[in-house]
Amino acid sequence: MALVLQVREESWPVKGKFSISRGTRRQADLVVVEISDGERSGRGEAVPYPRYGETVAQTIRAIEQGFDQLKGQCSHDALPSVREALQQIMRPGAARNALDCALWDLEAKQTGATIWELTGVVKPEALTTAYTLSLDSPDAMAQAAVKARRYPLLKLKLGGRDGKDRTRLEAVRQAVPEARLIVDANEAWTADQLPGLLAAAAKAQVELIEQPLPADGDDVLCEIRPQVPICADESAHTREELAALAEKYQAINIKLDKTGGLSEALAMMSAARKLNFRIMVGCMLATSLAMAPALVVAAQADIIDLDGPLLLAKDRDHGLVYTNGVIDLPGPELWG
Fold it and tell me: Is the distance from CB of 154 to CB of 176 less than 8 angstroms?
């Protein structure tokens, strides 16, 4: 039984625009992998992220090279062994994520087992995701919050260079006094700004702040005891980094494109729990095919941020169904 790889680039338009501190995107550029045994196929989707030096072309090359090396090192096609070898052959990142998730999907198709049975994770009834408000002016974000008030948890993208993040927090909280709020600064705050913005976040009853400082400049977090828990995103990729983060952060954001797939994400979840981190599961801007594997981790998480398809103009066939932020779990037509 020889495994065959297909890999392709896809672009999906964003609903309007999506802005964070690093810039604005109007489309999601993805890489999709299919691995076939001749009868069944497994799929995986990944988002190359420029923040980590990834491009679509580089990711496709890495997938092709990694798959060739994988076939050369695996003496048989038992997929758990193939996945284990993949962890050693390729570094964490988008390329390994696409391959790892495709191998999990293929195993589910081959065995007839669900992803919940394969992983041993208890299948939840449903999961509730945050809904992200793109970085904009305070008034525009307040208006967006009112339009999105059916979602029980709103995530605010902050980090504007205009110095108006405190005003953004105040405007959104005034517009939706009943909403739960979390914040993502995408490394855009400075150490000097941090005390005032943490105080503003606490006043606005923010529940969590993602990556306020640059990953290479977050040592100052060792010296503070924030009123609002701080979550590592760009600082946290795999389980090897967790011990060093324990003095700085109270939570970590697990994303499959950072961990390099579901396999490492599950291992990272287990290791993080032992260190008493709160767990957030996040995503890049992507379709339901990228969200589905992350739901396995989300079933064990404290905060879920898997709204990628809601931010796109359209989703792929058999995509996830969202009802006011509640995600219905997918069938095997999508993944797993």
Answer: yes
Q: Any residues with CB less than 8 A from the CB of 48 and at least 6 apart, and which?
A: 29, 31, 54, 55, 56, 58, 59, 94
- Does 4-112 carry CATH code 3.90.1700.10? no
The whole-chain average pLDDT of the chain stands at 95
* Identical fold, 4-112 and 127-328: no
The catalytic residue among 248, 255, 258, 314 is: 255
157 catalytic per annotation: yes
- CA–CA separation, 268 vs 167, rounded Å? 36
Catalytic entry in 109, 157, 258, 274: 157
Is 255 labeled as catalytic in the residue annotation?
Answer: yes
Please provide the CATH number assigned to the domain covering 127-328.
Answer: 3.20.20.120
Q: CA–CA separation, 295 vs 163, rounded Å?
A: 35
pLDDT tens digits along 139-174: 999 999 999 999 999 999 999 889 999 999 999 999
- Which run of H or of E encompasses 166? helix 165-175
How far apart are the C-alpha atoms of 269 and 274, rounded to whole Å? 9
Residue extents of the structural domains in the chain: 4-112, 127-328
pTM of the model: 0.96
Chain mean position to CA 198: 24
